[in-house]
Amino acid sequence: MYRDMASALWNCCAEKLNVRRQYLVSDPLSREAVLIDTVLDYEPASGSASTATASSILDFIHANGFNVKYILETHAHADHLTAAQYFKQKLGAPVGIGAGISQVQRAFGPTYNLSPSAFTGAFDLLLKDADELKLGSLTCRVLHLPGHTPDHVGYVIGDAVFCGDSIFQPDVGSARCDFPGGDASVLYSSMQRLMGLPSSFRLFVGHDYPPEGRDALCVSTVAEQRAANKHAKTGVSQQEFVHFRSTRDAILGEPRLLHPSLQTNLRGGRLPTEEARLGFKVPM
Ligand SMILES: [Fe+2]
Known about the structure:
Metallo-beta-lactamase, Chain A; sulfur dioxygenase activity; metal-binding; metal ion binding; POD-like_MBL-fold; RibonucZ/Hydroxyglut_hydro
């Protein structure tokens, strides 16, 4: 049953090394469903946004009779723009994110000259650890998984966990922790929490950066992660992880879509042109 729940999956914006995932998960009996980490097509050179990919997902939703109850983010992404507002407009479902988003909004608001009031009502649901959302006969349980970002959450539906960027495929390891509010020691704890789930649980990632020689993947089991996670498999200490992560993060550049992503995603997916008829700000 759970295999079917996770079968509707798109591989969006497949760049050379970064494959982003967005998920539609449904209760096979009631057809009630949830969208996780949707993506708006965006071309930075021209500043043009498109709902082409989102529209194809919407067509799939309608063709299969899914009743989307929630549009969820695992966190405020820094590398792509969410399509949450498009889906909300089309489907009428609420947009949810981790309650820690307020910390991210406070951290980045001044960078873009966004006052606190700019974030009022940005999201319909602010989710806390252990919150539960109903999907027909299924339950979507919230796991707070900070470290990559403070708002980061995962969603547990049956034996499937939608992890966002709190863990990557075993041969990729872990996500950066150098954004404001990020913390490598906290991410280590979140990864340990995921790896403490039952061995057969499936961890669906938000990205894959496949090494040369393998295709992009979206899922591994907890057992596989414990045995082989490149950065935090069983036996790696928190100290070792933090040392590796800090060294690695110190040489990483900013994500290409950092500024348009944050200005959109901190406001639940609203583009600046809706209010100001202006483009995105790029701080110097
Ligand atoms: Fe991320």
